[in-house]
UniProtKB/TrEMBL annotation:
Residue segments, region Disordered: 1-21, 153-194
Pfam families, alphabetized: MerR, MerR-DNA-bind
Domain of life of the native organism: Bacteria
GO BP term, pick one: response to oxidative stress
Name this protein carries in UniProt: MerR family transcriptional regulator, redox-sensitive transcriptional activator SoxR
C-alpha cells in the first residue's frame, strides 16, 4: 500500500518525499524534515554563512533544492570533526548561482584529501593505542613505567608526547637516532649491541 506523505507525494510514511522537480524551492520546514536537521540548526547555518535562503513575497525563507546536499555535507563534515570554518571555506568555493556539479564537489574532496587522511590516521592510532602509554605523564598504566619512566617525555613538551610526535618514547627510537639505548629500551630488552 502506498501512502501519501504530508507533502502530497507518494512515499513511505515518515520519510518526506519532495517529488522530482529539481527547480522547486523548499520551505525551511521541508528542508528540515528531508535533511533531518532542526529548523533552528538551519537558521544557525544561515547565520554562520553556511547556507543561503531567499525570501518569498510573504517574507518566508525558501531554499534551492541543492541546499539538501549542502546541509548533508555540513552534517557529515561536523560528524567527523571538521570545523565550521573549514566547512564554510569549502562551501564558499562552490558556485552561488547554480547547483554545484560533481566536478565542484570533486575539487573540495581533493583539497580535503590530505586533511582527511591525517584524521583517519589519528583515529586509527587512537583505536589501536588507547590502552597503552600516551606519554601524557599520568604514569597510571603498567606500560608507562617502560615507555615513559619518571615522565621523561615531559621534558620534550606538554600533552601526550607519544601521540603528538610519533616515534617519541618508542622502543628503539633513541637507538636509531643516537646509537645509544634509552632506559625504556633497556627495560624492554630492545637495546641493540653496539
Amino acid at each position: 500500500m502506498v501512502e501519501v506523505n504530508r507533502f502530497g507525494a507518494p512515499g513511505r510514511t515518515g520519510m518526506p518525499s519532495l517529488g522530482g522537480d529539481p527547480a522547486r524551492q523548499l520551505s525551511v520546514g521541508e528542508l528540515a524534515a528531508r535533511s533531518g536537521v532542526s529548523v533552528s540548526a538551519l537558521h544557525f547555518y544561515e547565520r554562520e554563512g553556511l547556507l543561503q535562503s531567499e525570501r518569498n513575497d510573504g517574507n518566508q525563507r525558501r531554499y534551492r533544492r541543492d541546499a539538501l546536499r549542502r546541509v548533508s555535507f555540513i552534517k557529515v563534515s561536523q560528524r567527523v570533526g571538521v570545523s565550521l570554518a573549514d566547512i564554510r571555506a569549502a562551501l564558499d568555493s562552490l558556485p552561488g548561482d547554480r547547483a554545484p556539479s560533481p566536478r565542484d564537489w570533486a575539487r573540495i574532496s581533493e583539497r580535503w584529501r590530505a586533511q582527511l587522511d591525517a584524521r583517519i590516521a589519528e583515529l586509527q592510532h587512537l583505536r589501536t593505542d588507547l590502552d597503552g602509554c600516551m606519554g601524557c605523564g599520568c604514569l597510571s598504566l603498567g606500560t608507562c613505567s617502560l615507555r615513559n619512566p619518571g615522565d621523561e617525555l615531559g621534558a620534550s613538551g606538554s600533552g601526550p608526547r607519544r601521540w603528538l610526535e610519533p616515534g617519541v618514547g618508542e622502543a628503539g627510537a633513541d637507538v636509531a637516532s643516537t646509537g645509544v639505548a634509552s632506559a625504556g629500551d633497556a627495560h624492554t630488552g630492545d637495546a641493540t649491541a653496539g
